[in-house]
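Risk mitigation, structural track. In case the binding assays with FE3-S4 cluster fail to produce interpretable data, a predicted complex structure has been prepared as a fallback.
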Amino acid sequence: MTSMNRRRVLVAKPRGYCAGVDRAVQAVEKALEQYGAPIYVRKQIVHNTHVVQTLEERGAIFVEETEQVPEDAIVVFSAHGVSPAVHVEAAQRGLRTIDATCPLVTKVHNEAKRFAAQDYDILLIGHEGHEEVEGTAGEAPDRIHLVDGLAGVNQVQVKDPERVAWLSQTTLSVDETNETVAALKGRFPNLLDPPSDDICYATQNRQVAVKEIAKQAQLVIVVGSDNSSNSVRLVEVAVDAGADAAYLVDNASFIQEAWLEGVDTVGLTSGASVPDELVAGVLAKLAAHGFDEVEEVSSIEENVRFALPHELRRDLRAAI
Ligand code: 0CJ
Ligand code: F3S
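Fallback model:
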């Protein structure tokens, strides 16, 4: 230990699964229980390496596209959602599907359909290539234009600048999105807002909490996988909020001892797709390095719950 001061960890709350991740993971578990292995899953059910590996060990098979799923199999669609074309493809192949799309992503799909039906061009703020954005854009491919942050604002072309609305990916940085929207309104003064926030409650709550700990911590550790948009955003938000350094780690083994040198206060948080046991592993490693005082920060309580996908409430075997 290099520091003589007391070493403490500020743990951000809320942590653990958000309601959409909990539902999606449970959907795969329930399908395995009800129908037995293998259960196919299109894309990673959520963007967490540990979750995917654990489900694989239990008999889930992860594929990139539905064409890789055998005709008589069951396939689960991931929490990030799919475009209508994927549903059509699956139906054409006679697959039995369980849609684990987070209901808050489905809400954005519905907003996209409604704006498109009203003849609006839709500026979808999000990260190019992210599955959620691909799914949402598929609801109205001719109408939806991706705006990937501030850099995308000046490039976007619309049919009628008077008839434009914006939507967003659910897991973006709230502050960055506000900046992008302000810039879009500079270009399109009549830009219509979504009826309610598209950035979901879990993403927003975790950003509020990480700002709180980043003000007091020299180092912020975010547990999450590197393809997890909401987890990566927490690293950026922590640095913007004043942490000297912030790192994303999949689990405790990724922590480098050099990061802890001269540090008295570590902030710890996790993405919405991260099981709490991984955070517990990081706490144990930090304790072994003298960070044995643990304080929970933030008073946000999360009590959102979603019912399991409706397909799990009937017997899919009946469809064979
Ligand atoms: O888009 C979602 C439905 C969020 C799912 C939870 O997080 P994660 O890490 O699987 O996905 P993101 O890359 O979207 O944050
Ligand atoms: Fe849904 Fe937000 Fe979680 S969109 S899956 S509640 S991160």
